[in-house]
């Protein structure tokens, strides 16, 4: 269920549009973007489900409550932080998406801003559209705060948490479950991969993809930039989330929410702002890895915050209070008690940010020099010239390489 993270949304749209033009427009955009984005909700929610205490469900069922009532009043409230954060993240992600919606010929704020910047050279209209987009983002952020509520969700009683047992479904339910998940897999993974293989086999411009050195250069550039960007983002997100959860106040809440507002600004606008700043005030940094990593940090900090928050809110603060009573410093308590307990969430945050940085296109395209090529840029350049077969090796390489962190994330981070 996490494999769709390996395929960039613009690659999925390219494969679907090469299959049928009926996916253009509103419903096609909604469908393909949903297939590409649902793992952003699946990962944090599944992580919480695996750590829930089944004693709450057993108590509810022992009182004669129905399974539906038990889920709604005993299980769902514990999932609200992860669900709310996922809704916020996916909504903001879809608001600022550019590559996918442009391929599907669906007009959004980001495509309109791009047209005003690049085609009409109308900066004032583009700035106005960006302001409206940020206003919509503010409404979404406040809606997520209302949905989350103020309840605490960690286990405060004595004893250890009792995990859920694996249950065997009946044959009919197994068939329904298998059919449901198979259809999701086919639509989100099967169709894009099959179409990529099709273009690789029947295409006529495969030779234009370049030699092995170009593949290796694109691979190494993507790995280095994405790794450094993900590391910086997670390191900065940790103290923000920790302060917002453990020292809740209006100040910490707003500091925690400010990056989400920045996430509503299209990557195109942030990239152009950094281009202007580096040219006029830091010319030596123009088109360097440093500027690219800063852009990644600004764009994907909310993604790291979402996953880290879901893990930290499930951790009782009692262990930290015990450390304080023993005279330990806050840094020592965080390093020895808090961090090891939320390490799966930290790994999940790093993997999520890393995967999305591997697929980042707009900011990378504007901030890199001509001699720096990543996998996403290579795919974009070839598809822009209608060289689908030449773009396919880079796209397949991006999919396969992104699958390694997804596998490790599924195997180790959410045990």
From TrEMBL:
SUPFAM superfamilies: MetI-like. Residues 1-142, 219-409 form the ABC transmembrane type-1 domain. It is found in: Cell inner membrane; Cell membrane. Its main location: membrane. It is a multi-pass membrane protein. PANTHER family: FE(3+)-TRANSPORT SYSTEM PERMEASE PROTEIN FBPB 2 (PTHR43357:SF3), INNER MEMBRANE ABC TRANSPORTER PERMEASE PROTEIN YDCV (PTHR43357). Belongs to the binding-protein-dependent transport system permease family. This is Iron(III)-transport system permease protein hFbpB.
């Amino acid at each position: 269920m996490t494999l769709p993270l390996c395929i960039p949304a613009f690659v999925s749209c390219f494969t679907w549009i090469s299959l049928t033009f009926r996916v253009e427009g509103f419903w096609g955009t909604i469908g393909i973007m949903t297939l590409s984005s649902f793992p952003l909700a699946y990962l944090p929610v599944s992580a919480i489900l695996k750590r829930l205490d089944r004693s709450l469900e057993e108590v509810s069922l022992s009182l004669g409550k129905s399974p539906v009532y038990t889920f709604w009043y005993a299980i769902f409230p514990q999932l609200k932080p992860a669900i709310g954060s996922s809704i916020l993240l996916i909504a903001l992600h879809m608001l600022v998406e550019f590559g996918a919606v442009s391929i599907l010929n669906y007009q959004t704020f980001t495509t309109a801003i791009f047209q005003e910047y690049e085609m009409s050279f109308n900066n004032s209209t583009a700035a106005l559209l960006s302001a409206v987009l940020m206003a919509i983002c503010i409404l979404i952020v406040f809606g997520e705060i209302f949905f989350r509520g103020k309840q605490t969700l960690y286990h405060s009683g004595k004893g250890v948490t009792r995990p859920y047992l694996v249950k065997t479904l009946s044959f009919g339910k197994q068939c329904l479950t298998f059919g449901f998940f198979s259809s999701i897999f086919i639509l989100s993974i099967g169709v894009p991969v099959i179409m990529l293989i099709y273009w690789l086999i029947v295409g006529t411009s495969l030779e234009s993809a370049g030699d092995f050195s170009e593949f290796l250069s694109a691979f190494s550039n993507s790995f280095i930039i994405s790794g450094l960007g993900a590391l910086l983002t997670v390191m900065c997100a940790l103290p923000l989330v920790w302060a917002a959860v453990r020292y809740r106040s209006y100040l910490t809440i707003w500091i925690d929410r400010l990056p989400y507002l920045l996430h509503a600004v299209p990557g195109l606008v942030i990239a152009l702002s950094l281009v202007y700043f580096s040219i006029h005030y830091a010319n030596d940094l123009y088109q360097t890895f440093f500027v690219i990593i800063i852009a990644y940090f600004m764009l994907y900090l909310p993604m790291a915050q979402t996953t880290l928050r879901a893990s930290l809110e499930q951790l009782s603060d009692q262990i930290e209070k015990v450390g304080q009573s023993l005279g330990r410093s806050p840094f020592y308590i965080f390093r020895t008690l808090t961090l090891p307990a939320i390490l799966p969430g930290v790994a999940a945050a790093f993997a999520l940010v890393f995967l999305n940085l591997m697929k980042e296109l707009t900011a990378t395209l504007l901030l890199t020099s001509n001699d720096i090529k990543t996998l996403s840029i290579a795919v974009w350049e070839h598809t822009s010239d209608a060289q689908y077969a030449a773009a396919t090796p880079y796209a397949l390489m991006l999919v396969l390489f992104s699958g390694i962190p997804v596998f490790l994330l599924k195997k180790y981070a959410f045990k």
